[in-house]
Design brief:
Number of helices of chain A: 19
Order of helices and strands of chain B: EEHEEEHHHH
Number of strands of chain A: 26
CATH architecture of the largest domain in chain A: 2-Layer Sandwich
CATH superfamily of the largest domain in chain B: Beta-grasp domain
CATH topology of the largest domain in chain B: Ubiquitin-like (UB roll)
Shape of chain A: globular
Helix content of chain B: 25-40%
Largest sheet of chain A: 7 strands, mixed
Radius of gyration of chain A: 27 Å
CATH class of the largest domain in chain B: Alpha Beta
Largest interface: A-B, 53 and 50 residues
Oligomer: heterodimer
Number of domains of chain A: 3
CATH architecture of the largest domain in chain B: Roll
CATH topology of the largest domain in chain A: Aldehyde Oxidoreductase, domain 4
Chain lengths: 776, 155
C-alpha cells in the first residue's frame, strides 16, 4: 500500500460508477420500484391550520368507504417523545415530537394516517375524515418567536431537551474567545451587518417513500429512501416499542437526498401502519408533501460585527445567528453551531471571536439537515461582512479575505471549543491549499482584469456586469461521533464482497469506497462487489451526512482492507507451510517468497474453502475520526444585471476546491458543480413562501423553481489537490462545500456591479430593479 | 376499458380505468424506469416517447393512448451493448443518483431522431423541462452535444 499519489493505480482515476449501467437502463432499483401492487396504501391527513389542537375525531364516515382498512390518530398510539433527526445517539436535538400528536404545529402537520387497499379509497378517506380543531394563534415570523406575547409552539409537558419552551427557544449556544467588546472598541474600522438566508428546500427528485412488510419470521422490514438506515432502525425501535433485532432497514438506490432524508419521516408512519395491520404497506409522499413534511433549510438572520485595522487585518469577529427551526427542533442545534464552527475558523488570525445563536420555533414546516448545514448561512454573513470591510477600505475583497484566512499547519481554538451539540476536538489544518485555490481561481477567472473592466461606471445602456469572490471551509464527518464500518469477504473467484453501512445517495460513494478497497488490495476495482446498505447484512455506519462518507467510511474500508490482507497472508503461510513474513500479496496473487510459488486469489480462496486449512477470509474494519479534516474552496463569479428588469444572470462561476486527493475526479467535480447549481438557485429564486395564516403558497415544482439547464451560464470546478495525512489515500470531503460560496459570491458581484449591497436572498429581479431605480 | 398499444415493440392489451394516468399504468405493468418526481408535469422524470414524441406520462390519460406506440427506457440497450445515448451519458459522467436519467434519455432520443441538428443552446432549451438536481447539467449537455456532433457527421 502506498501513500504516494503518483503511484496510485485505482484511486485518482475516473472509474465507472458501480451502479451506472443499472441506472442508465432504468432497472427497478429505487424504493418505489419495490412496491408490490397489492400493498396497502398509507396516506397522511394534514392539518389545515398552522396552530391548532385536535378536539374531536369522527372516523365513521371515512371507515365506511369501501377499501379503507384503518385510520390511526393520536388516540391509537402511545406518546413517546423523540426526534426525527437521524443523528448519533444521544441526539443533540430536543425530543419534541410524537408519532401522532393531538396538537398541530404547521399547515400540513400530521393529524392522522389513513390505511386503504388502494389509492382512490385512501384519497377519499383523507377527505372524509372528520376532525374538529380548536384553532390557536400561530407564530409565523421567526424574529418575533421569542417575544413574550408570542404563542407557544411547544407547551406540552412531556417533551425533553427544549432549551426554553416558554420563549419558543428550541436550542441556544454561545462561546467567546478573548474580550470581544474591548477588541471591537479599539479597532479603528468596524463593520456591523446582517444577512438573511431563505427557507429553501433540498428538492431531491425522488420523493420520500417507504415500503414496510413483516417477513415470514414476523420481523418488521423497511425498504426506504433514507440516508440513515441504522439511525432509522434505532429510532423506529424506540417509537414502535419493538427491539432493534426485530427490525430490518434496507436502503436501495436513492434518488438523492441532500439532507432531506436524514430524518425518520415516512418510515415511522409506514412502520406503524404495517405493525397495526400486519400487512405490507407503502407510503409515497407527493411533491407538495416532500416540500412541506420533510425538511427545509433553516432560514436565518445572521449578524456579524468585525473590528479591523486600517490595513485590513481583522482583529475580532462577533457572530449572532437567529435560526428558524419551524415546528420541531430536528437538527436545530447542530445546524446553528455549524453556522459558526465551519465558517469562523477560516479567519483564524483574530484575537477574539464570539458566536451566539438562538434557534426558535415557529408554526412553519420543519427545518432540518440540508447540504452544508449551517455553513451556507454563516458564510453568507461572514463573507458578506468581509466584502463590506474591503469596500469600506477601498481594497480588493479577495486580498482582504486572503490575508486573514487560515493556511496549512495553522489552527483555530474554535475547533476544540465548538463541536456539534457538544465540545469539539483540537485540530490543525494538516492539509490546506487555500492559498493555491485562491491563486488558481484568480488566474482561471481573470479576476483582476474583470474587476477593472466591470462595475457601475462601465455599464452599458442595458446591462452592467460585476464580479464577486468568496472563500469557504467545511469538515469531513463529525470528529469522535461519526462511526463507520465495512466488511470485506473473499470469494473463490478472487472477488471480494464489500459490505458497507455507508449510504450512497447517488453521490457515487459506493464507487469510491470500492476504489479504496481495490487500491488497498492492489486488485482491479471490478473485483470488488459493493453492497450498501441493509441493517441485517452490512455493519454499522451512521449514514450519509456531514460530509462523512469519503473520510469516515473510506477509512473504515481501508481498515477492513488492511485486516483482510493480513488474514490472507496468515492463511497463505499455513497453506505454503511457511512463516507469514515469507509470504507476499502481489497483483491478486499470494506468493511464497521462499520457493516463488504463487496462487491466484481464486486458487487461494478455493483452497481456503475446500482444502485442509478451512476458513473464510472475512474482516470488518471500523473508524471514528479523531479530527474532521477541512476541505477548502475559493469561488469567483461574474454576473450580469439587466438594467431594464433588474434580472441577475450568473455568467461564469469558477470554484477551486482542495478536497485532498480527489479519489474519483469526475465524481468529485460533479459534487462541486451540483452544489454550485443548488446554491445559485437559492441566490436567485428558491424560497418557500407562506400566506398570512401559514399556508404554503409555492410548494410545487411549478411555483418553486429550481435551476433548469438554461439560466446559469458557465460553471467550472477545478481542484488544488492536497494530501490529507489522516484521510484514506489522502482524501477529505467534497460533497457539501460547493454550496457554501455561490450565494454570497453573487451578492458580492452585484455590489461590484452596482454599488448596492443586498442582504436578503433570494435576490429577485423586482428587488434589484427597485433599488436601481432609487439609485438613479 | 381495454387499450391495445405497442410498448417497446411488443403488443399489449391492458385494462385501464378512465381516469388512470399513463405513468401509473406503465409502472403497474412493470415499466419501472418511468419515474414520478412531481406528478404535475414540472420535472420531466416521467418522459416517454408516444409515437416518437416525448410526452410527460404523468399528464397523459392511459385511455388516450389506445392504438399508439410507446417507448420507455426499458427498450433501449442491453447488458452487452448500451444504447449510444446511454453510453454517452456513461462516458460523460452525466448523472449521479440516476432518478432523472430515464426521462432525460428518452427526451434526448426524441431530439436525436428529429431532422435538425441542434446547437448547444438549442439542446439546453429543448431539454429545460428535464430537471436534474444532482449534476450541474454541464456533463449532460456535453454528452448530448457529442451525440449531435456524431449525427451531423452522419455516423
Amino acid at each position: 500500500m502506498t501513500n504516494d499519489p503518483t503511484r496510485f493505480r485505482i484511486v485518482g482515476q475516473n472509474k465507472e460508477k458501480v451502479d451506472a449501467r443499472g441506472l442508465l437502463r432504468g432497472k427497478p432499483v429505487f424504493t418505489e420500484d419495490y412496491f408490490p401492487k397489492d400493498a396497502l396504501v398509507v396516506k397522511i391527513v394534514h392539518s389545515p391550520y398552522a396552530h391548532a389542537r385536535i378536539a374531536r375525531i369522527d372516523k365513521s364516515a371515512a371507515l365506511g368507504i369501501p377499501g379503507v382498512v384503518d385510520i390511526l390518530t393520536h388516540e391509537d398510539v402511545p406518546r413517546i417523545p423523540y426526534t426525527r433527526a437521524g443523528q448519533g445517539y444521544p441526539e443533540p436535538s430536543p425530543y419534541d415530537t410524537v408519532l401522532l400528536d393531538n396538537k398541530m404545529r404547521f399547515v400540513g402537520d400530521t393529524a392522522a394516517l389513513v390505511i386503504a387497499e388502494n389509492e382512490r379509497a385512501a384519497r377519499m378517506a383523507v377527505k372524509s375524515l372528520k376532525i374538529d380543531y380548536e384553532v390557536l394563534e400561530p407564530v409565523l415570523d421567526f424574529e418575533k418567536s421569542m417575544s413574550s406575547t408570542a404563542p407557544l409552539v411547544h407547551d406540552e409537558k412531556d417533551s425533553k431537551g427544549i432549551y426554553e419552551p416558554s420563549r419558543n427557544i428550541a436550542a441556544h449556544y454561545e462561546m467567546a474567545i478573548g474580550d470581544v467588546q474591548e477588541l471591537l472598541a479599539r479597532s479603528p474600522v468596524q463593520i456591523e451587518t446582517s444577512y438573511y438566508y431563505p427557507k429553501s428546500q433540498q428538492v431531491a427528485l425522488e420523493n420520500h417513500c417507504t415500503y414496510a412488510y413483516m417477513d415470514p419470521m414476523e420481523r418488521l422490514t423497511i425498504i426506504s429512501s433514507t440516508q440513515v438506515p441504522f439511525h432509522a432502525r434505532r429510532i423506529l425501535s424506540k417509537i414502535l416499542q419493538t427491539p432493534p433485532g426485530k427490525i430490518r432497514v434496507i436502503k436501495p438506490r436513492i434518488g438523492s437526498g441532500f439532507g432531506s432524508k436524514q430524518g425518520i419521516i415516512t418510515e415511522g408512519y409506514a412502520a406503524l401502519a404495517c405493525l397495526k395491520t400486519g400487512k405490507p404497506v407503502r407510503l409515497s409522499f407527493n411533491r407538495e408533501e416532500t416540500f412541506i413534511n420533510t425538511y427545509t433549510r433553516h432560514d436565518m438572520r445572521v449578524t456579524v460585527r468585525i473590528g479591523a485595522e486600517l490595513d485590513g487585518r481583522v482583529n475580532v469577529i462577533d457572530m449572532y445567528a437567529l435560526s428558524n427551526t419551524g415546528a420541531y427542533g430536528d437538527h436545530a442545534l447542530t445546524v446553528a453551531m455549524v453556522c459558526g464552527s465551519k465558517t469562523l475558523p477560516l479567519y483564524n488570525k483574530v484575537q477574539g471571536v464570539r458566536f451566539v445563536t438562538d434557534i426558535v420555533y415557529t408554526n412553519l414546516p420543519n427545518a432540518g439537515a440540508y447540504r452544508g448545514y449551517g455553513a451556507p448561512q454563516g458564510l453568507l454573513a461572514l463573507d458578506g461582512a468581509l466584502d463590506e470591510l474591503a469596500a469600506r477600505l477601498n481594497r480588493d475583497p479577495l486580498e482582504i479575505k486572503a490575508i486573514n484566512s487560515i493556511r496549512q499547519g495553522e489552527t483555530s481554538p474554535i475547533f476544540q471549543i465548538m463541536g456539534e451539540g457538544r465540545e469539539g476536538v483540537p485540530q490543525i489544518a494538516r492539509s490546506c491549499k487555500l492559498g493555491e485555490c485562491i491563486d488558481i481561481g484568480k488566474n482561471a477567472f481573470d479576476w483582476e482584469k474583470k474587476r477593472k473592466a466591470y462595475g457601475w461606471d462601465r455599464r452599458t445602456s442595458e446591462t452592467v456586469r460585476g464580479v464577486g469572490c468568496a472563500l469557504a471551509m467545511q469538515g469531513s464527518g463529525i470528529a469522535k461521533v461519526d462511526m463507520a464500518s465495512a466488511t470485506l469477504k473473499m470469494n473463490d473467484d478472487g472477488t471480494f464482497n464489500l459490505l458497507v453501512g455507508a449510504t450512497d445517495l447517488g453521490t457515487g460513494s459506493d464507487t469510491i469506497l470500492s476504489q479504496i478497497a481495490a487500491e488497498a488490495l492492489q486488485i482491479p476495482v471490478e473485483k470488488i462487489i459493493v453492497f450498501s446498505s441493509d441493517t441485517d447484512v452490512t455493519p454499522f455506519d451512521v449514514g450519509a451526512y456531514a460530509s462523512s462518507t469519503t473520510y469516515v467510511s473510506g477509512n473504515a474500508v481501508l481498515d477492513a482492507a488492511k485486516k483482510v490482507k493480513a488474514s490472507i497472508l496468515r492463511a497463505a503461510a499455513g497453506i505454503f507451510e511457511t512463516d507469514v513474513e515469507k509470504v507476499e500479496v502481489i497483483d491478486g496473487c499470494v506468493k511464497n517468497l521462499t520457493d516463488g510459488k504463487t496462487l491466484t486469489f481464486a486458487e487461494f480462496c478455493t483452497l481456503c474453502f475446500y482444502g485442509a486449512n478451512h476458513q473464510q477470509i472475512c474482516e470488518t474494519g471500523s473508524y471514528v475520526g479523531e479530527e474532521s479534516p477541512i476541505p477548502f474552496m475559493a469561488t469567483f463569479m461574474e454576473i450580469e444585471i439587466d438594467l431594464k428588469t433588474g434580472k441577475v444572470t450568473p455568467i461564469e462561476t469558477v470554484s477551486v476546491v482542495d478536497c485532498g486527493t480527489a479519489l474519483n475526479p469526475a465524481l468529485a467535480k460533479g459534487q462541486v458543480e451540483g452544489a454550485t447549481l443548488q446554491a445559485l438557485g437559492t441566490a436567485l429564486f428558491e424560497e418557500l413562501r407562506f400566506s398570512e395564516t401559514g399556508k404554503p403558497i409555492n410548494a410545487s415544482l411549478f411555483r418553486y423553481k429550481i435551476l433548469d439547464r438554461c439560466s446559469f451560464g458557465k460553471i467550472t470546478a477545478l481542484f488544488a489537490e492536497s494530501y490529507e495525512p489522516t484521510g484514506p489515500f489522502g482524501a477529505k470531503s467534497v460533497s457539501e462545500i460547493g454550496i457554501d460560496t455561490p450565494t454570497v459570491a453573487l451578492l458580492n458581484a452585484v455590489y461590484h456591479a452596482t454599488g448596492l449591497r443586498f442582504h436578503r436572498l433570494p435576490l429577485g429581479s423586482e428587488t434589484v430593479f427597485n433599488a436601481l431605480k432609487a439609485k438613479q | 376499458m381495454e387499450i391495445r398499444i405497442i410498448v417497446n415493440g411488443a403488443e399489449k392489451r391492458w385494462n385501464v380505468e378512465p381516469g388512470e394516468l399513463l405513468i401509473d399504468v406503465l409502472r403497474d405493468n412493470g415499466y419501472k424506469s418511468v419515474k414520478k418526481g412531481c406528478g404535475s408535469a414540472d420535472c420531466g422524470t416521467c418522459t416517454v416517447l408516444l409515437d416518437g414524441r416525448a410526452v410527460l406520462s404523468c399528464s397523459v390519460f392511459a385511455a388516450s393512448v389506445d392504438g399508439k406506440s410507446i417507448e420507455t427506457l426499458e427498450g433501449l440497450g442491453s447488458e452487452q451493448q448500451l444504447h449510444p445515448i446511454q453510453q454517452a451519458f456513461l462516458d460523460a459522467s452525466a448523472f449521479q443518483c440516476g432518478f432523472c436519467a430515464p426521462g432525460l434519455i428518452m427526451a434526448t432520443k426524441e431530439l436525436l431522431e428529429k431532422e435538425t441538428v441542434l446547437t448547444e443552446d438549442q439542446i439546453k432549451r429543448e431539454l429545460s423541462g428535464n430537471l436534474c438536481r444532482c449534476t450541474g447539467y454541464e456533463n449532460q449537455v456535453k454528452a448530448i452535444g457529442g451525440l449531435m456532433e456524431k449525427k451531423r457527421e452522419g455516423k
